[in-house]
Amino acid sequence: MSEEFKVEIVNPETSFLSKEDVTEVIVPAFEGEMGILKDHISIISFLKPGILTIHAKSGEHKFYVEDGIFEFKNNNLSVLTSSIFDLKKIEKSRLLNLIKVAEEEASKQEIDDQSRFLIDQKIEVLKSLN
Amino acid sequence: MASLDDLKKRITSVKSTQKITKAMKMVAAAKLKRAQESAEKGRPYSEKMNNVILNLSNGISDKETAPKLLSGTGKDKIHLCVVMTSDRGLCGGFNSNIIKKAKNYFGEILKEGKVLKIITVGSKGNDQLKRQYGNKIIENISFKNSKNANYFDAEKVGRIIIEKFEKEEFDICTIFYNQFKNVITQIPQAQKIIPLNTESADENELEDSYEFEPDEDEILNNLLPKNISTQIFKAMLENSASEQGARMSAMDNATRNAGEMVDKLTIQYNRSRQAAITKELIEIISGAESL
User: Fold this and answer.
1) What angle, rounded to 10 degrees, do the helices at B4-59 and B216-289 form?
2) Which residue range forms the structural domain that includes residue A112?
3) Is B261:B254 a contact under the CB 8 Å cutoff?
4) A129 touches chain B (CB under 8 A)
5) Which CATH architecture has domain B31-199+209-250?
6) Which candidate, A76, A86, A70, places its Cα nearest to that of A16?
7) B45 touches chain A (CB under 8 A)
8) For the whole model, what pTM was predicted?
9) What is the pLDDT of residues B192-242, one digit of tens each?
10) Residues of chain A positioned with their CB less than 8 A from the CB of B151
11) How far is the alpha carbon of B262 from chain A, nearest alpha carbon, in Å?
């Protein structure tokens, strides 16, 4: 029996990626990283800033995501996100810029605990990439 | 009757107008193609988003505790209308159609004695509405500097709307935009985004039970603001495709009209030229005869 399922990543402007031969996806879900294999129970959750890893027959792909939601149903994983970058293609200057913006945000006083948590997370992930 | 020289000038001027309208038509056609493509590309996102929300809202048993963005404030006293138009003119009835639709709606709301607040997106809508509803317009957003409709701009509008909702500045929010059907038809739409219309839920297969992590409420709270931006973005995409379509057909008409005018003027020019020649001949002949 094949162990593959389908992954679709869409962002508002275009359908970012669609793959049929995926064996495992690791998503940075809000409550912790989560590995999804075939025949996982139907689930909806949202993402925190992190690295989304796709293991496919054709190789491994890594993406940086900032926010969004994902839905797994009938062996179909859909990821909806407004900010996603392919780690292979992202330029260093872009990365540095992202860190700068995030740090500026983090230095603001009036943000609540949840967004502070998210921003700290974001900075951490971005720095580990750098 | 206009002199020959005047006619000649007229013809050249109409011809150069025709050149401009023709060029504008070409530009609109090229832009339309791009706008249509991005509208199509953007569709999966909003559809998926919608599906997830329908699934989620079905999972919520207690409507009382449902997020306010979904169920509304329970009142319908203050209406916020977001009128989305273009930033540029010369696109036929594109802007007027939205405005007409919006004005009808405004009239109804005011007749029922409710409070009306307006946000205009795009400067043309603001221009047309400010005379009659100037005191009702609370915000005017324009994206003159952005070349194409992009999600970043949509998010900006979404954030403004949500901010106002959280401050309880309105109960019901409706957006007005043109839906792109084809190049000659654009349908003005009024879409309610707060509270969200979940009535179509029955049509989808919803028997699946989901696992939610964290719980439904929290996901919905996270998702609904995003959905608003998504809806706005969708409207912006539809609008930009419609705008280019409308401009293309308007400019096509203008080019054709200019062609007709050139033909008419050319005939008139030839006639008067011939009349002048005939007149001169008569003068010469009668002059010769008198000798």
Assistant:
1) 170
2) 92-129
3) no
4) no
5) 3-Layer(aba) Sandwich (3.40)
6) A86
7) yes
8) 0.85
9) 888 877 665 554 555 557 788 777 778 888 888 888 888 899 899 999 999
10) 11-13, 82
11) 44
